[in-house]
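Technical annex, item 7. During the second reporting period the consortium partners agreed on a shared format for inverse folding records so that results from different sites could be compared directly. Each record opens with the tokenized structure and is followed by the designed sequence. A conforming record, contributed by the partner at site C, is shown below for reference.
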């Protein structure tokens, strides 16, 4: 069983949870994961912006999408929780200037995507975040939004960020934009701003990033065209509430348990109602490449999103290595920490390249993965844009520093299942950012 202890620092008055994770003998069971974090953000924002009331079922339980709901509430949307589902009544396209700062917590998605939604509104919107979010790059959204005519003040390229809504000074104009960064958040900021711009905004992406915004916009009645790698959205469209929408289970949360299933010969994992959108499902290909046997059953479409049940076992050949680079690295960006954390147990090792973006996530995820692998006794070579982790290694239980990054916390809790001895995960409370139920499920599924 995993056990947690809390310590309070008298200097900073912050509470840190240390989670002890013991090795397991296998990993077995079935579950339905809470709603996808990325999709939940988009539905929180668009339901809050639309006209009418939308019921959101299986909304993410993570803190991040709740930051998005909180910001929408602060801008006039009504958000009600009935004990199971969330009912959002939107502002009909006119967001109110909030009385105070818009607190995005740890959530880069909230800050970047909402920047696009408020850019064409009336009033002033000041965005703040926690220590980690305050140093994350925001220039990437300021550039396209300023080309559209928005006025945005950053603090040395970061939050606090103030957006002066363009409706007070002539409104936004459409642009043709080529995104230099493979980022669904930047794409979304431009598409959301395009809703309020005069003319047809277009955005081209060099790598096909997650397309949840496109599906969600269409679900709210927006016309959006994709030709090759370019999206076109006409300004002035009104969004109409959806009676009810069920958010599919989160593939990026599933990734931790999929990797756990790869660690044991007789594992068996069944995940119901999981989002298997092709722009998010590269993880299933990696699981297969690493020796897993994946069955995808009952696939259905819900508001453009593909949802299915998946079953995973480890194949007879054991855990194999994998090389991840190029487009695949961009598509797996959230899953790379856990792939790296199980890499030492693989036969041939794991090489990761073209993943420089990992350095500007909730933490520098390359540096932290390397540090924690070494703390558990592994050999690893760090590169500016990735790492090389040789296979055939054993890990010993060690002290892991989460850096208060949810994905680092969970990734090393999975590695700990095959380590020799107990592992102490410091700052384990970070898991709540995307997956508060993580440790409960880990205990349930790990066979000890
Ligand atoms: C997200 C996009 C990715 C991802 C993040 C969620 C999204 O970020 O890492 O966790 O919901 O659009 P980037 O767009 O910055 O790559």
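Designed sequence (site C submission):
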């Amino acid at each position: 069983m995993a056990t947690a202890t809390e310590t309070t620092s008298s200097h900073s008055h912050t509470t840190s949870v240390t989670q002890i994770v013991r090795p397991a003998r296998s990993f077995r069971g079935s579950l339905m994961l809470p709603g996808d974090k990325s999709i939940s953000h988009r539905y929180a924002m668009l339901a809050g912006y639309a006209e009418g009331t939308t019921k959101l079922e299986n909304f993410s339980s993570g803190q991040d999408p709740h930051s998005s709901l909180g910001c929408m509430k602060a801008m006039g949307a009504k958000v009600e929780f009935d004990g199971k589902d969330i009912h959002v009544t939107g502002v009909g396209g006119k967001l109110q200037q909030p009385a105070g700062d818009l607190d995005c917590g740890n959530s880069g998605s909230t800050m970047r995507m909402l920047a696009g939604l408020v850019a064409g509104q009336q009033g002033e919107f000041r965005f703040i975040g926690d220590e980690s979010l305050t140093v994350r790059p925001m220039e990437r959204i300021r550039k396209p939004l300023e080309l559209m005519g928005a006025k945005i003040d950053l603090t040395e390229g970061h939050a606090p960020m103030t957006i002066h809504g363009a409706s007070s000074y002539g409104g936004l104009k459409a642009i043709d934009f080529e995104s230099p960064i493979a980022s669904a958040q930047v794409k979304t900021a431009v598409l959301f701003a395009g809703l309020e711009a005069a003319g047809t905004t277009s955005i081209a992406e060099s790598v096909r990033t997650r397309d949840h915004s496109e599906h969600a916009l269409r679900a709210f009645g927006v016309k959006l065209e994709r030709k090759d790698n370019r999206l076109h959205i006409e300004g002035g469209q009104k969004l109409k509430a959806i009676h009810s929408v069920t958010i599919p289970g989160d593939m990026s949360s599933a990734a931790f348990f999929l990797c756990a299933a790869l660690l044991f010969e007789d594992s068996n994992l069944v995940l119901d109602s999981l989002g298997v959108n092709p722009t998010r499902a590269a993880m299933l290909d990696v699981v297969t490449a690493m020796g897993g046997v994946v069955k995808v059953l009952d696939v259905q479409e819900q508001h453009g999103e593909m949802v299915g049940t998946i079953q995973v076992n480890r194949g007879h050949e054991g855990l194999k290595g994998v090389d991840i680079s190029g487009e695949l690295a961009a598509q797996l960006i959230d899953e790379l920490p856990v792939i790296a954390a199980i890499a030492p147990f693989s036969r041939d090792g794991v090489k990761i390249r073209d993943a420089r973006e990992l350095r500007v996530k909730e933490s520098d995820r390359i540096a932290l993965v390397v540090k924690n692998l070494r703390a558990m006794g592994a050999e690893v070579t760090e590169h500016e844009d990735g790492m090389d982790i040789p296979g055939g290694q054993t890990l010993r239980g060690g002290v892991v520093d989460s850096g208060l990054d949810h994905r680092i916390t969970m990734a090393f809790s999975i590695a700990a299942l095959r380590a020799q001895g107990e592992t102490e995960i410091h700052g384990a409370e970070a898991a709540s950012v995307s997956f508060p139920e993580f440790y409960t499920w880990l205990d349930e599924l790990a066979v000890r």
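The longest strand covers residues 292-302. The CA atoms of residues 214 and 224 lie 7 Å apart. All partners now use this format for quarterly exchanges.
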